[in-house]
Amino acid sequence: MTAPHPSAEELAPLVLPPLSFVVPEGFHSLPVDASADELPASTAEFVRGLYPSGDAELWGSATPYYERVATLLSTAGLLYSGLGIFGLGDEGVAHCSLSVAVCASHHADTESAAQGTLAVLSSDPLNDARWLELPCGPAISCVSMRELSVDAEKTESSEEQPRIITGQIQIYLPFPTGPYMAVFTLSTASMRCWGEFCDMLTAILQTVSFTDPGDSDDI
């Protein structure tokens, strides 16, 4: 079972306290923060980066699709959405998705927000929920696994239905600067690289900051 997602009513307003983080090379960031005028060009650049060996026909057909996806995700409250693609040499590639959403939490302090989130998530025995101490403050991680079946119509009746295991880790991170909760979600079907993806998310979380990057006092 996956952890709960913010409802439409809980989505944060457009003006938020500062939140910044750094993703490693290999991520292709969907332009969910682009304006309507910027979106076509930004999405075209995203598609060319995602499919560097493609051609004009592929890029032209994929760009409108990803424009719609970017628009949908931005209206759903996502601050960031990216696809990570990492080469494994002769073994192909590993891939994952990373999103960051912000919702209103109405907490008085980060400790109480994290404790309440841990209590809720821990009540479900299918959730592996744990307390984290990050440089930017307390957080809660929640790991879940899901088994997906391939459409039975695609296989012979005598064959066992193919199954895919996917993993998801969510990090609930209360803002120390306002009553909001950031939710980092990493999902992947490349389970052979699950440990590496968990380490990568841990590294991303070490870079999270709730201060304005333009603040002269921020080093």
What can you see in these coordinates?
By secondary structure, the protein is an alpha+beta fold. It has helices at residues 39-50, 56-75, 110-122, 194-205, and strands at residues 27-29, 78-87, 93-104, 128-134, 137-149, 163-174, 180-188. It has a seven-stranded antiparallel sheet, with helices on both faces. Strand 4 and strand 5 form a beta hairpin. Helix 1 (39-50) packs across helix 2 (56-75). It is globular, with a radius of gyration of 19 Å. It starts with 26 loop residues before the first strand and ends in a 14-residue tail after the last helix.
Brief digest:
The chain has 219 residues and is α+β, with helices and mostly antiparallel strands. The protein has helices spanning 39-50, 56-75, 110-122, 194-205; strands at 27-29, 78-87, 93-104, 128-134, 137-149, 163-174, 180-188. Strands 1-2-3-7-6-5-4 form a 7-stranded antiparallel beta sheet, with helices on both faces.
Order of adjacent strands in the largest pleated sheet? 1-2-3-7-6-5-4
- The 3D shape can be described as globular
User: Any low-confidence stretches, pLDDT <50, length ≥5?
Assistant: none
Terminus-to-terminus distance:
40 Å
How much helical structure, as a percent, in the residues?
A: 25-40%
The fraction of residues assigned to DSSP E strands is 25-35%
Order of helices and strands: EHHEEHEEEEH
Number of helices in the DSSP assignment: 4
Number of DSSP E strands: 7
Q: Kindly provide the radius of gyration, computed on alpha-carbon positions and rounded to a whole number of angstroms.
A: 19 Å
Average pLDDT over all residues: 86
What characterizes the major β-sheet? 7 strands, antiparallel
Structural class: alpha+beta
